[in-house]
């Protein structure tokens, strides 16, 4: 199991929902917590809550994880301010909740951007440091909808199937190239 105490843990989508709960848990377990979210008000709230946990250094950065440049810029800032990220938890996610024919092109692009492309972008900015260090952990929150299709969630299911496939593929690559770097897929 990956040691949390003393490790820098970055959580995407950490201002609310599961991401927020994970951030608080990581803080209580002694992690140096970095939260990314697109919502500045929610981000400020969770950082204040995290900093109230005794002995916790918490940092928050506004970031649109669906946008490569936003991810790249935020990662550079995190590396300058906090240092190497040892644990990346991809928790950001969106769901449209519409049938296939009701989905707009913008909704499909948003779902794929946040739920799929973001996984590529965050891994691209943090994985090289993990490989170089010979340790690290990428945790991806997917969904049971990434294992079985659900009516009214075609965009969501497709994005979560992609998350499962990316994790499996990355795990095989890392086993060969950097066995000290782990991946975990979570399908609630």
In words, what does this structure look like?
This protein is an alpha/beta fold. The protein is built from 5 helices and 6 strands; from the N terminus they run E-H-E-H-E-H-E-H-E-H-E. It has helices spanning 17-28, 40-51, 68-81, 105-133, 154-177, and strands spanning 8-12, 32-37, 58-62, 87-90, 136-141, 181-186. It has a 6-stranded parallel sheet with strand order 3-2-1-4-5-6, sandwiched between helices. The longest helix is centred in the middle third of the chain and has 29 residues, at 105-133. The mean pLDDT is 96.
Fraction of residues in helices?
Answer: 40-55%
Task: Tell me, briefly, the overall form.
Answer: globular
Query: What are the low-pLDDT stretches, counting only 5+ consecutive residues below 50?
Result: none
Rg over CA atoms, rounded to whole Å, is 16 Å
- What's the mean pLDDT score? 96
Tell me about the largest β-sheet.
Answer: 6 strands, parallel
Note the beta-strand portion.
15-25%
Cα distance, first to last residue? Answer: 20 Å
The assigned structural class equals: alpha/beta
Give the SSE order as H and E letters: EHEHEHEHEHE
Let me know the number of strands: 6
**Main sheet strand line-up:** 3-2-1-4-5-6
